[in-house]
Amino acid sequence: MRDPAAELVIAAGRTQRQYWQDLWRYRELFYFLAWRDILVRYKQTAIGIIWALIRPFLTMVVFTVVFGKIAQLPSDGVPYPILVFAGMLPWQFFANALSESSNSLISNANLISKVYFPRLVVPTSAVIVSLVDFFISGIILLGLMVVYDFVPSWRIITLPFFIAIAFAAAMGAGLLLATLNVKYRDFRYVVPFILQFGLYISPVGFSSSVVPEQWRWLYSLNPMVGVIDGFRWAILGDSALYLPGFSLSVGFVLFLLWYGIRYFRAYERTFADVI
């Protein structure tokens, strides 16, 4: 027998007002989507999750040979492979997260067009999957430290702060590109170009100290410059942190996150119609 005190109230705009509460109510959906993506990514592969180690390792080897051996760029007093991999870790996380989150809405079109849930769950779960790969790839960095007998300084305890900045950068850019990808399918071709171009203009294979002083502030407009420099400052200890440029990068990351969420929310209600 139905409880006469129980009432179902449908009010205009109520879903929007309770949006952030719904994110918490649908928290299990984060887990299921992330776990599904992890299983699908390495399903029917011979070496499985080891691919998360091979890709950054081979890139690190190439960058070490090109920039460390051939170009003879400075390494800030640390072994060049460790310098490269300390920059490769956040970049690989950002690149994977941006690629996966930008395509997340399109790849989940059937779910989005049939069921209500906060759409923000979808690209966020894609970023979380990339974060799992990030921690797996960190095994290589630990191995390099053992091989080169390198001991990080006390600054290593600040690493979670820089991981949070990297997560914010990936989320902001991912939400923006995911929305644009729904509206304009051309962006599925733009994202790989952005990542390829960004790899070479970011200080992944070299130290930011090689950039002339008068151009450091302009170079820091690249949000990954501050993230990578922060990682190296925390992991390597000896590398200097260019505070004006780092502050500019972090400020841009926060703006990108704010704008990405706002832009995503502005078009979220139209996703099911145009996807």
Draw up the topology in text.
Elements lengths: L13 H4 L1 H7 L1 H15 L9 H20 L9 H28 L1 H6 L6 H27 L11 H25 L3 H15 L14 H4 L3 H14 L6 H25 L3 H4 L1
Q: Can you walk through the features of this model?
A:
The protein is mainly alpha-helical and 275 residues long. The chain is 71% helix and 0% strand. α5 (80-107) packs across α11 (223-236) and α8 (159-183) packs parallel to α12. Mean pLDDT is 84; it is low at 8-14.
Q: SSE order in H/E notation?
A: HHHHHHHHHHHHH
Number of helices: 13
Rounded radius of gyration (Å) = 21 Å
Strand composition percent = under 5%
How would you summarize what this structure contains?
Helix content is 71%, strand content 0%. With 275 residues, it is mainly alpha-helical.
Keywords:
13 helices; mainly alpha; about 280 residues; globular; about 70% helix
